[in-house]
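Database export, one record per block. Field names are fixed; values are copied verbatim from the stored entry.
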Amino acid sequence: MAQQNDGTMTREVCQQRLFALEQRQLHSPYDLYRQWREIGPVVYLEDQDIYVVTRHDMIKLVNRQPMLFSNQNPLGPSSALAAEAIAEVLQDFPEEAAARAHVVLNRGNVLFTADPPEHTRHRRLLNGALRRSAIDSIKSEINLIARDAVAGMKRNADIDFNEALAAPVPIHCLATLLGVPRDHAADFHRWAEAINASIGSKMPREKIRRIIQDQMEFWSFFEAEIMSRERSPRIDLLSAIATEKSERDEPLTLAEKVGFCSQLIGAGADTTTKLIGFATLALAQDESLQNKLRKAPEAIRPFTEEILRLEPPVQGMFRVTTADTELGDIKLPQGSMVWLLYGSANRDHNVFTCPDEVNLERINAGDHLSFGSGPHICIGANLAREVAHSVLTHLLAQTKQIVLAESQQLSVLPSYVMHGLASLTVRLT
């Protein structure tokens, strides 16, 4: 029995539970992260053959060296295993369909799945498409979408918050930015689930077949939309993606354009949904916090940053070493899998005081790594922040109280990479 109180034993049990995708460990993995930080900035997990980078400064150091720490497999070993399973099922599909599904699965090898010099080219071509002014141009529409969605939610009744608000609003906002009809919102949500299905989770064969069908449908839709914009550009994000050119770079291929769209749908909308869910959960669990934000709506932006820091929708990205190297006095052979654990860095006490608490006056709240850092910092961060802020502003302004439903049993998605609530049932008054 004494062994059960030993810190090492506790850590090993928690590690096993995390990678076995056990609910209680996935919901709050942060004590395990703290134990890893106490060991050192880099921790080798022998059973997973993964080097975990736990601390803020060390993760930023890695992110500044994209040639040494390759981004070719940012979603980690579970994604690679899922890709093998998907490749097996794809043998039953026509060659062209299989090739398209591979592009969507791999996000077109563009931006966050690419290394320099290709990543540098992608960034130059696409940075303008999601510049701050592009988000500002649809800010009023984002505001209206959020306002109307909150207004349409039932009061004094249990509601599925993800279904009613957290999922549809980011999808509608992204559809508006892209310039495609909002009546495809349900398709966008289904496609996002298909794109993200392989991340840090396990899939049965029948589910693989369904997501392949969805991925091929995604390709067909966006191929048609992109080709339409190439012929007749409009003032929207999809036209910018379709027609973006530069004198120094080769234009994007069709696969790269569709791949970027898959990143926007899979990462942009889905992660914003997760952010809104955790923010609402925090509000529902703390009535005094709700009241404070209603009285001081200017604090909603700092609150959003704190939720991003505390509950990052992406717990960490993976890198692969391209040569033998050393990190934090730990030798890493070429080909090592390195997990940049943003969820740990965001609670690093060397950077954030009282790191496990929401502090609306935290002066360095924006120093979190939930959007990454360095060359691979998230290109859609501005959109995610704006959508989440608008949703939370209207949710607080149009309600007197947000409470968890008595029947609520919190569960999270079965992934140690993507971090989100599988369900959230609340009651609004």
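Remark 1: DSSP finds 19 helices and twelve strands in the chain.
Remark 2: The first strand starts at residue 42 and ends at 45.
End of record.
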